[in-house]
Amino acid sequence: MLDNLMLGRHILMKTGLLSGGLFFGKAQREELAHRKVVEEIIDFLEIEHIRKTQVVMLPYGLQKRLELGRVLALEPDLRIIDEPMAGMNLEETEDMARFILDINQERQITVFLIEHDMGVVMDISDRVAVLDFGELLAMGTPEEVQQDPVVVKAYLGDEDVDLYKR
Question: Where along the chain do its domains lie?
């Protein structure tokens, strides 16, 4: 598991192949600095207890948490997370939602979340965009989107609202 998170850091490493292979001096210092970042991610995601477990042996929810850790390890400018709660039970979904909120609030990182669990979306989002077959139906706060008649028609069916006339 630890190696999977370190793999997310490799793109950020500056050491060349020769010095990295010999693992001394600058390469060793760089590796230790990246390992420190990974250790912080492990603490943040509360996965210390599985740090030496092979990924294939992890339950699905912890595998998804590890995927989130790899996203954090990469340090991209924008975090786009596609269906992080797919296939999870209620407890795993709540944990993942909490971690996504913490990423945003504690680490000041914007997260672009693609998710079909509307309960989660409405609970943790500041802004929501609703698409229907690639068409943008509505964008706004969760409350605004929930009350939009076009969204209501698309997801609940309302014969009095024309989806594509706004």
Answer: 1-75
Calculate the CA 95 to chain-centre distance. Answer: 12
Q: How far is CA 127 from the centre of its chain?
A: 16
- When pLDDT is cut at 50, 70 and 90, the band that residue 31 belongs to is confident
Pairing of strands 128-132, 135-140: antiparallel
What H or E segment, with its residue span, contains residue 113?
Answer: strand 111-114
How is 36-89 classified by DSSP, letter by letter?
HHHHHHHHHTT-GGGTTS-GGGS-HHHHHHHHHHHHHHH--SSEEEE-TTTT--
Q: What is the mean pLDDT of residues 68-87?
A: 91
Higher-pLDDT residue of 8, 59? 59
Instruction: List Cβ neighbours of 116 (8 Å cut-off, separation of 6 or more).
Output: 83, 86
The DSSP bridge partners found for residue 111 are 79
d(CA 106, CA 149): 35
Is residue 145 within 8 A of residue 139, CB to CB? The reply is: yes
Cα separation, 58 vs 50, in Å, equals: 8
